[in-house]
Design brief:
ATP binding; binds adenosine-5'-triphosphate; kinase; binds magnesium ion; alpha/beta; five-stranded parallel beta sheet; binds (3R,4S,5R)-3,4,5-trihydroxycyclohex-1-ENE-1-carboxylic acid; Shikimate kinase; globular; Shikimate_kinase/TSH1
């Protein structure tokens, strides 16, 4: 499926850029400035879910558990990926469902923002809006999730972008070059 001519055509011609990666990898932060730089519309699947339900993600996890949230995430992604010229920041767990991976892969260039556990921890340790990290040992939880998910991020990604010490702006400019290169090599 993934490599059929129809799918690879839409992947690039949709103009969509889809960011995947762990909590704290910078999908929302990077997505916003990337969209501004490329004159695309920025959307965030977590924000879309909160907009659709009128409640916060922690509240959805409280009431419906993770399975309820995952269903809402799949519904939100399905509605978003059919649009064009988006920069779409996904939730950290968006790669877990095979149907999510298929729809992301078919409808945009997928970018994995890769970060190590220590950086992820530094960026998320004080945040209360990520239900999966409301645990005694955030560092260990991030390590566990990265271990479970890294192969899925890699599998779905067209571009893997390591994020480290450099500024978000410098990283964004690097990413713009990588995207251009990808488009040139895959037109
Ligand atoms: N490359 C970076 N260098 C330093 N700090 C960063 C970088 N990317 C993001 N951050 C910071 O990390 C925090 C988390 O980033 P962000 O919310 O964009 O992550 P996310 O990938 O969208 O996470 P989630 O999956 O939970 O939505 C923010 O405070 C942001 O400013
Ligand atoms: O990594 C995850 O599973 C999550 C990441 C966030 O973006 C939210 O989608 C939610 O907190 C779950
Ligand atoms: Mg985010």
């Amino acid at each position: 499926m993934q490599n059929s001519p129809t799918n690879s055509t839409r992947k690039i011609q949709s103009g969509n850029l889809i960011l995947v990666g762990m909590m704290g990898s910078g999908k929302t932060t990077m997505g916003r400035i990337l969209a501004r730089h490329l004159n695309k519309v920025f959307v965030d699947s977590d924000e879309e879910i909160q907009f659709r339900t009128g409640v916060t993600i922690p509240h959805i996890f409280d009431v419906e558990g993770e399975p309820g949230f995952r269903q809402r995430e799949t519904d939100a992604l399905a509605a978003l990926v059919v649009r064009n010229d988006l920069v779409l920041a996904t939730g950290g767990g968006a790669v877990l469902a095979p149907e999510n991976r298929a729809m992301m892969s078919e409808n945009g260039i997928v970018i994995y923002l890769k970060a190590n556990v220590h950086d992820l921890w530094l960026r998320t340790r004080n945040d209360r809006n990520r239900p999966l990290l409301q645990t005694g040992n955030v560092h260990a939880k991030l390590a566990e999730l990265l271990q479970q998910r890294n192969a899925l991020y890699q599998q779905v990604a067209d571009i893997v972008m390591p994020t480290g010490r450099q500024s978000v702006h410098a990283l964004m400019l690097k990413l713009v070059n990588e995207i251009e290169l990808y488009r040139k090599n895959n037109q």
